[in-house]
Amino acid sequence: MSSAEKNIPEGPAGGTADAGGPPAALFVFTWLWVGVPMAYGLYELILKAVQLFTGG
Amino acid sequence: MAPGFLDRSRTVAPPGWSRWLIPPAALSVHLSIGQAYAWSVFKPPLESSLGLSGTASALPFQLGIVMLGLSAAFGGTLVERNGPRWAMTVSLLCFCSGFLLAALGAAVEQYWLVVFGYGFVGGVGLGIGYISPVSTLIKWFPDRPGMATGIAIMGFGGGALIASPWSAQMLESFGSDNGGVAAAFLVHGLVYTVFMALGVLLVRVPAEGWKPPAGKKPQEQQAQKPLVTTADVSARNAVRTPQFWCLWVVLCMNVTAGIGILEKAAPMIGDFFADTSTPVSASAAAGFVALLSLANMGGRFLWSTTSDVIGRKNMYRCYLGVGALMYLGIVLLGDSSKPLFIVCALVIISFYGGGFATVPAYLKDLFGTYEVGAIHGRLLTAWSTAGVLGPLIVNWVADSQEAAGRSGPGLYALALSIMIGLLAVGFVANELIRPVDPKYHVPAPAATAAQTAQTAEAMERAGQDGGAESKEETGR
């Protein structure tokens, strides 16, 4: 998401500014919810992949 | 849970709702159901604790994949009609209760219950969950449908990366007897219930008339993309078009070629370099497989996003044409250079993943957004077919070559050449894809009437529920 897009309100027919949009904390929480497990999976995968270059 | 909570009309986004909350909703489902590819972690403990053969212990996974294809194909229309929250809930209930049934089966040593739970019930959850966010993401990101579906479908690849080490650690803690397996299944069912619930709670469909932010043009408004339609085709009509079947062949060939190398990756790299000065050890082969998983996942996002820029047809020309050249590189030069072999294999597998992730956007280009989820579900039967074809071809040919006295790269040359031929067939099928004949389009008045009925239903329900909420739900 570009920084410009973050500031653009979204809504019906192009959107009008609306104070009732989701709070920033919800963004952080939801992306962390899925991001942390993915980071764990990637970390474990990289540990295995390193063996390709060190394991002979 | 409030009555009607799952109803499509209750998921209409209020003004100001950000579309960037939809990808994590989709990911919470896809990262969970992607666990299916980590089933092999459970095979050895099941075999030892329940006295099963390798074929028997693979059955829950195989049934799960079959059910994925069938439930996506037959449930697609229901998903489209009832909306993403309903679909994600059905997926959650089936996928997680499948684990709970499997836990019971392992605990009481009734293997059929493991097969029924994980394979049949859980498999329905896989299929419905796989297609549940697709049309919603496409509607929220008309300017970047490839990127949006790429994020979700990347999650399906990422799910196994999380589940594989997590499940292995759990079995280490609980033990590998039937009680340990049952406990691991139970924890999986409970944790995935909580994890997927985020998607159920968070998912929203855009209000009627919603447009992407200023400056972001819907894709159909972008110039020079003749395959991108502004019309809509129903799922029923889509399967009557040559475009659907050409795309079916394209997906089937691309997946067959990818699965062929994916399924034999570890023994293949070992055999290729067995007689060279740089043989590959078992741990290095495991590292190669891990690297392929990364390429599979990364390709889903990278290439699908690229397709938003260069167009879907061009992207598939790369998957199929460049993919064939990569296979040719392995056949002709593969055993002369390990880096070359690895790079070619990584590109092939990234194209395999990319093919899965780009296909929903290709369908949206050809058939519109009207029933794209249902059409996608029907197209996934190509995946089921390829899942049988790919391993069958590679294993059968490799076995017959071994019987003929060949070894090393010679075991795979013929199979890889067959893959090049299949990719060529897919390339031709892709070239045959043209815009859909207008006779298949949904008449505009009918589409408008359907939308009006949906809006009226939403307004009526909102009116019953009361003031403030009603304004949010209808986006008015």
From TrEMBL, chain A:
<protein>
    <submittedName>
        <fullName>Uncharacterized protein</fullName>
    </submittedName>
</protein>
<keyword id="KW-1133">Transmembrane helix</keyword>
<keyword id="KW-0812">Transmembrane</keyword>
<keyword id="KW-0472">Membrane</keyword>
<feature type="region of interest" description="Disordered">
    <location>
        <begin position="1"/>
        <end position="21"/>
    </location>
</feature>
<feature type="transmembrane region" description="Helical">
    <location>
        <begin position="24"/>
        <end position="43"/>
    </location>
</feature>
TrEMBL record, chain B:
<feature type="transmembrane region" description="Helical">
    <location>
        <begin position="146"/>
        <end position="168"/>
    </location>
</feature>
<feature type="transmembrane region" description="Helical">
    <location>
        <begin position="282"/>
        <end position="303"/>
    </location>
</feature>
<feature type="region of interest" description="Disordered">
    <location>
        <begin position="447"/>
        <end position="476"/>
    </location>
</feature>
<feature type="domain" description="Major facilitator superfamily (MFS) profile">
    <location>
        <begin position="1"/>
        <end position="433"/>
    </location>
</feature>
<feature type="compositionally biased region" description="Basic and acidic residues">
    <location>
        <begin position="458"/>
        <end position="476"/>
    </location>
</feature>
<feature type="transmembrane region" description="Helical">
    <location>
        <begin position="180"/>
        <end position="203"/>
    </location>
</feature>
<dbReference type="Pfam" id="PF07690">
    <property type="entry name" value="MFS_1"/>
</dbReference>
<keyword id="KW-0812">Transmembrane</keyword>
<keyword id="KW-0472">Membrane</keyword>
<feature type="transmembrane region" description="Helical">
    <location>
        <begin position="375"/>
        <end position="398"/>
    </location>
</feature>
<dbReference type="InterPro" id="IPR020846">
    <property type="entry name" value="MFS_dom"/>
</dbReference>
<feature type="transmembrane region" description="Helical">
    <location>
        <begin position="244"/>
        <end position="262"/>
    </location>
</feature>
<dbReference type="InterPro" id="IPR011701">
    <property type="entry name" value="MFS"/>
</dbReference>
<feature type="transmembrane region" description="Helical">
    <location>
        <begin position="315"/>
        <end position="334"/>
    </location>
</feature>
<feature type="transmembrane region" description="Helical">
    <location>
        <begin position="59"/>
        <end position="79"/>
    </location>
</feature>
<feature type="transmembrane region" description="Helical">
    <location>
        <begin position="410"/>
        <end position="429"/>
    </location>
</feature>
<feature type="transmembrane region" description="Helical">
    <location>
        <begin position="86"/>
        <end position="105"/>
    </location>
</feature>
<feature type="transmembrane region" description="Helical">
    <location>
        <begin position="20"/>
        <end position="39"/>
    </location>
</feature>
<feature type="compositionally biased region" description="Low complexity">
    <location>
        <begin position="447"/>
        <end position="456"/>
    </location>
</feature>
<feature type="transmembrane region" description="Helical">
    <location>
        <begin position="340"/>
        <end position="363"/>
    </location>
</feature>
<keyword id="KW-1133">Transmembrane helix</keyword>
<protein>
    <submittedName>
        <fullName>OFA family MFS transporter</fullName>
    </submittedName>
</protein>
